[in-house]
Amino acid sequence: MKILAANKFYFVRGGAERYLFELAGILEERGHSVVPFAMEHPLNEESEHADLFVSHVGFDARRGLLDRFRTAARVVHSVEARRKIGALVRRTRPDVAHLHNIAHQLSPSIIYGLRAEGVPIVQTLHDHKLICPNYQMFVHGQPCERCAKWRYYNACVHRCMHGAIAWSAVVAFEAYARKLLGTYSRHVGMFIAPSRSLMERMIAHGVEPEKIVHLPYAIALDRYEPRFESDGYAVYVGRLSVGKGLETLLEALALSPGVVFKVIGNGPRADDLRTTAEHRGLRNVEFVGYRTGTELRTLLRGAQFVVMPSECFENSPLAVYEACAYGKAVIGSKMGGIPELIEDGETGLLCAPGDVSELASALAALWDDPERSIRMGKEARRRAEREYGPDHHYERIMSIYERVMQ
Question: What tens digit of pLDDT does each residue of 5-40 get?
Fold first, then answer.
């Protein structure tokens, strides 16, 4: 089978791209071919079809008015993206298209290009874009569901996109347009939700129940050699942005000065978080920046446990899958899909989101009892082998492809 995989980036920028490459590896190892479609970017992996990737677009507010207008128009409908994906289909003749994150940079226009060529479509929902114009369901420091059931005008009222009324109006208009036209509901054959939390929220906000299935991410476990002992520190790994609960984490670490902690990642909140740590005199916290490859593996394998303190509606964080694969216990918040990945008291500990004292207690509980961390880590690895291995995922994904092809 030949699968066209569409995603705005063709390099590992976050969880969606990590899964994109994991799934491609699973499919290719079993004799299928995967054709990528993405936006041009200097960090992209090599592809023989890169000549048909769409031109790069950014969202820099400092650009001229005309450039911003062109970008806004492209968010709603990209003539270039529709034309190029049609050309890619005619060149490669895929059996099915699997969409990942396509909003804004690629735009929903590619859906029309695929359907014009008769290609059936599956889409994995990595975020809440179908029901939330800014896709995060988090604004002004709080979870938000104001736009549920067609109330997309709230994106403008609360300036949900980059804090700007203009960009917020663009994404609100785009949401109304695709809803009125049935862009997703009419033309996408099946949606995949990596978490039950996301699936239930999508159904509650109007997605047809028969068109969405729950399928957790997969992880190639043979690439993750577990290590149950530690080098004497705990970690957070992920994007340093709003909604991740990192301010709460720093406050909890201030109450747990004996816990040696490394923050792995980068993002728009990085400088503010470093400043906060310095002002609070947190000598037990080190910001190591963005790490990949061997460096990231070494840091994760050396951790005593991993912390995921999100205060937004997380989908199904791949950082938790990776922690389990490496045999690490996870402290996570009871938010979004995180509780589905952590068995409280068995593979980690769950805390109320934003609760500093509860998070501090959980940090101390695992830090002061390394043997308990090891027991939880071993159980986490067993669960990963049982539920997140590639064979089961392959069977499910192929059944979904075959269903939409029929």
Answer: 999 999 988 889 999 999 999 999 999 999 999 999
pLDDT digits (tens, 9 = 90+) for 221-263: 988 999 999 999 999 999 999 999 999 999 999 999 999 999 9
Please give the single-letter amino acid code of residue 98.
Answer: H
Question: 283: which 2 tokens?
Answer: 């000598």
3 state SS for the chain: CEEEEECCCCCCCCHHHHHHHHHHHHHHHCCCEEEEECECCCCCCCCCCHHHCECCCCCCCCCCHHHHHHHHHHHHCCHHHHHHHHHHHHHHCCCEEEECCCCCCCCCHHHHHHHHCCCCEEEECCCCCCCCCCCCCEECCEECCCCCCCCCCHHHHCCCCCCCHHHHHHHHHHHHHHHHHCHHHHHCCEEEECCHHHHHHHHHCCCCHHHEEECCCCCCHHHCCCCCCCCCCEEEECCCCCCCCHHHHHHHHHCCCCCCEEEECCCCCHHHHHHHHHHCCCCCEEEEECCCHHHHHHHHHCCCEEEECCCCCCCCCHHHHHHHHCCCEEEEECCCCHHHHCCECCCEEEECCCCHHHHHHHHHHHHCCHHHHHHHHHHHHHHHHHHCCHHHHHHHHHHHHHHHHC
Q: What is the pTM of this model?
A: 0.90
